[in-house]
Amino acid sequence: MAYLITRLCIDCLDRGCVEVCPVNCIYQHMGEPTDGRPNMLYIHPTECINCSACEPECPWHAIYEDRELPAVFAGDVAVNAQCEADPRAFAVAVLQRDGQGRLLPKRRPTADEVAENRRKWEAP
Ligand code: SF4
Ligand code: SF4
């Protein structure tokens, strides 16, 4: 079993999950975003140790354990798995820093923004 990042992460990317993952199994796509490889992060399905540390760190509630994944996000299982299937196109996600190496502050979404994002992607 593993955790998954759903499309609720698209264009949010604050990387709170990356900060806490103990095994660095959260990846970013190195090319331009496409429909099949959107601008989000990806959890490696076999490197994930199912520790659950990332899930409460996501302000957009985009992370689920696979056995609790809502049906509307079923397609995101294959989306995440691409970082295992095509490793040359992905790299371990890194935290965003400014030109002097300082971590960039994270933007915390409001409750309304989180709710709107969930409506947009038809999350239950
Ligand atoms: S469940 Fe643990 S190991 Fe898996 S992605 Fe989240 S923090 Fe990393
Ligand atoms: S914390 Fe959530 S929204 Fe932020 S990068 Fe991770 S999965 Fe995406």
Descriptive terms for the model:
124 residues, alpha+beta, Alpha-Beta Plaits, 3-stranded antiparallel sheet, 5 strands, binds iron/sulfur cluster
SSE arrangement:
Layout: E1 3-5, H1 16-20, E2 26-29, E3 41-43, E4 63-65, H2 76-85, E5 90-92, H3 111-120
Antiparallel strand pairs: 1-4, 2-3, 2-5
The chain binds iron/sulfur cluster (2 copies).
Physical arrangement of strands within the biggest beta sheet: 3-2-5
Largest sheet: 3 strands, antiparallel
Spans of at least 5 consecutive residues whose pLDDT stays below 50 are: none
CATH class (first level) name: Alpha Beta
Total number of domains:
1
C-alpha end-to-end distance: 22 Å
Beta-strand residue percentage: 5-15%
Report the helical percentage. Answer: 10-25%
Small-molecule binders here are:
iron/sulfur cluster
User: How many H/I helices?
Assistant: 3
Nutshell version of this structure?
It is built from three helices and five strands; from the N terminus they run βαβββαβα.
Characterization of the model:
The strands form two sheets. A three-stranded antiparallel β-sheet has the order 3-2-5, covered by helices on one side. Helices cover 20% and strands 13% of the residues. The chain has one domain (3-120): Alpha-Beta Plaits (2-Layer Sandwich), CATH 3.30.70. The chain is globular. It has 124 residues and is α+β, with helices and mostly antiparallel strands. It starts with a strand and ends with a helix. The longest helix has 10 residues, at 76-85. Bound molecules: iron/sulfur cluster (SF4) (2 copies).
